[in-house]
Amino acid sequence: MENPIIELNGLTKTYGTVKAVDDLHLTIGKGEIFGLLGPNGAGKTTTILMMLGLTEPSAGTAFVCGVNATTHPIDVKKRVGYMPDSVGFYDNMTALENLMYIARLNGIPEKEIEKLSRQTMEMVGLGGEMDKKTGAYSRGMKQRLGLADVLIRDPEVIILDEPTLGIDPSGVKEFLSFIHHLSRQQGLTVLLSSHHLYQVQQVCDRVGIFVEGKMLVEGNIETLSRSLFGEESFTVRVTVREPLPASGEPVQELEQLAAIRKINISGKTVEFSCTEDMTPEIVRFFVEKGFNVMGVHKKEFGLDEIYERYFENNLKKNSSDGKSGGLFQRPFFKRSKIQ
User: Fold this and answer.
1) Confidence bin at 86 (pLDDT 50/70/90)
2) What pLDDT does residue 225 have?
3) Separation between Cα atoms, residue 56 and residue 149, nearest integer Å
4) Are residues 327 and 310 in contact, defined by beta-carbon separation less than 8 angstroms?
């Protein structure tokens, strides 16, 4: 990747005999939304603190916007907006007063502060709530105010550490949609740290599965899916009213469709393993052949399946190495569905 905005090379952090982060290599490009996915205690926050120059690495380097975060932490902080999982404000002040105070601390000229603060509040959807005291704000509203805190600094990079904790499903959907829109509209680079698979999958360009201080794998969903499951990344299941013959026509014609790799027939149900989404073509085929289609179910391998496969692979590896398995003894991600 040419001229990455974030570049981590061999980043390592040890506490005594424990490696919180172990030889991490990662590059993130301008305008990219990258999801750092892992359980609590995986080392995600420690990685972020090293990127911000808030803790020194035991080895390796972290460059953010071309600046060494360890040797020039102040320069990094000027370019990066960081929102932790729990954002604190003065409860006895209004949201607008809080944001204006933050603007002053960041050296924004006094004559610009109120106008900029109001514009930022409008941007994050709190325009009608800016004069309410933050002590009366819900968790979701405080997260939006935290985002305003980040944006008023006009950062090149936004780092969000578990930003959707405690937000209701509709609020999560709105929050992530706004982050995606912001990145695309302003070219902002976003690092999103989370343990919610579904949320990360909805908004991120690439993801990295990070466990026990190690990056197990990183890439976009399609690349990771194909690397684990081969070309058969889609499954389409069709149920018809009439039992289907296990061989002969129309099975032979179905096998000619280029993207279909496997066909399994069980009575009135046919399951197709495909290299791409063939649902429209398959349904059209059955209808044209005079079959009454009773149901269609499509499944694309996503982060749930990718995680489960890595869970299985690492469990086997740890077992063969004589290790107990640690976090790999059980699924550790909270599966959150946005309604």
Assistant:
1) confident
2) 64
3) 25
4) no
Tens digit of pLDDT for each residue in 211-222?
A: 889 988 888 876
Helix/strand/coil for 154: coil
Domain segments of the chain: what residues? Answer: 6-218, 234-300
What pLDDT does 328 receive? 35
DSSP letter at 249 equals: T
Tell me the H-state helices in 159-203. 169-186, 197-203
Q: Is the pLDDT of residue 207 over 70?
A: yes
Segment (H or E) for 191: strand 189-194
Measure CA 194 to chain center: 7
Looking at the predicted structure, is the pLDDT value of residue 265 above 70? yes
Percentage helix, strand, coil for the chain under 3-state DSSP, each rounded to 5: 40, 25, 35
Q: How far apart are CA 2 and CA 22, in angstroms?
A: 24
pTM above 0.85, yes or no: no
How many C-beta neighbours within 10 Å does residue 252 have?
9
**Whole-number Å distance between alpha carbons of 34 and 220:** 9
Helix axes 139-151, 95-105, angle to 10 degrees: 30
CB 302 within 8 A of CB 226: no
Tokens matching residue 104: 């002053």
Q: Is 126 within 8 Å of 141 (Cβ atoms)?
A: yes
Whole-angstrom distance, CA of residue 308 vs CA of residue 296: 25
What token pair was written down for 67? Answer: 């600046």
Select the CATH number that applies to the domain covering 234-300 from these four: 3.30.70.2470, 3.40.50.720, 3.30.930.10, 3.40.50.1980.
Answer: 3.30.70.2470
Domain at 6-218: CATH code: 3.40.50.300
Q: Please choose, from the candidates 137, 139, 157, the residue with its C-alpha nearest in 3D space to the C-alpha of residue 67.
A: 157
